[in-house]
Amino acid sequence: MARGRGRHPRRRGAQGARSGGAHLRAGRARRPGRGARSGGSDPSPRHGRPPSSCSSWTRDGWTSTGRSAITSRSSRSPTGTPAAVTPRHLLTHTAGFPGEDLADYGRNEDAVAALVANLSGAPKVTEPGALFSYNNAGFVVLGRLVEVLRGGAWGEVTQRRLAGPLRLETVVTLPEQALMHRAAVGHVETAGTTNPAPVWSLPRALDPAGGLAMSAADLLEFARMHLDHGLARDDARLLSRAAVEAMSTPQVTPPPLSAFPRSYGLGMEVHDWDGGTVTGHSGATIGQKAYLRMVPGAGVAVALLTNGGASDALHADLVHPLLNGLAGVRAPAPATPPEAGTPIDPRRYVGDFDMGLATIRIDHDGRNVLTMTTVPRFSYVESLVTNPVATLAALDDHRFVEVGQDHGERREVVFLDPGADGRFRILHNSRAMVRIG
Hints:
This protein has helices spanning 53-63, 87-91, 111-118, 136-150, 154-166, 175-178, 207-210, 216-227, 241-248, 311-327, 379-382; strands spanning 2-3, 47-48, 187-190, 193-196, 214-215, 263-264, 269-273, 276-284, 289-295, 300-306, 351-354, 358-363, 369-376, 389-394, 399-403, 412-418, 424-428, 432-435. By secondary structure, it is of the alpha+beta class. The termini are far apart.
């Protein structure tokens, strides 16, 4: 937990960031994964993957210096056509092109540039600005802009402009850097068995989207800077007040998914909870998930890093009551399956939808439910898909929620853009997937 330094009337004292050394695992005891040391009584925090709001800070930092306008249009879009794609579209996940390129472009410093160059043939899902669709590749494009504008590789710029000024001691982007700290290994579930993840990190080209790793304490120091409107502890201004406000001010409204934020600022989630606004971000990599929640009105921040198990359920059980007690905010209830099945016209939903790395197949077996199956297109994706089949019940004619799960992590989807024949063109689960069959 972190608090601001007194610039808000409800902030009391210079408490700084605090973190515990407990290793928590939702549902069962956890033994350390390969390469991770046991916690014991050592209070040092484990090392894990933070949410991408940290990356957003480095990207937003250059927009607040006057070196580049956030609404400036790029000369060409990632689709290779004369473009209306702006940094604002990229920061709000509304650029309109697919964003799940997990290919390995090598470990050299040109990896980010190589991925961006490969986007020239990406298809268009929607017009820029038309629809929210979470887009990791869009953040890589922003990372490349940072590399060019700041004159260095992404990891070096992050150290120079984020970790250094904030005196963060555990921020790393490469596995060999993580070995110098107490690195946590991700865990994935396959056929009911939980095992260490097959790899520790995503390819280097994805560093701007999800390549940072740090301790919970350093993540909270980053949050404290936000609560103090962009100031470091020595009062050096790292980010303009206007940029901080833009990150936490609603810019776009995603489709209605109960577990998803009401809106997005520039690179940051904006949740409308009972009692106040909650900002932050969640981030998932291979077997790890991180959460940052800030309540600007109360000057409170909470960070949670997990490396396996029912992490969303743990977040709800641990972080939600903590924020309620510290800041007086209450999370909305998640969607639950209806007691009686809602009649549906299966013809409108059944088919295949393009997720890039996988095909999402919607089937119907005669009941008032749908079956959603994830079919990986590449062998390396198979290890990332832990629950490939889900049964979906209708909340209304376009929103569906998973049934049969007992660990509090039900998936939700929304069907969008019906054609003249009534069939939906887009399946949305935070990412827009276009019908291909």
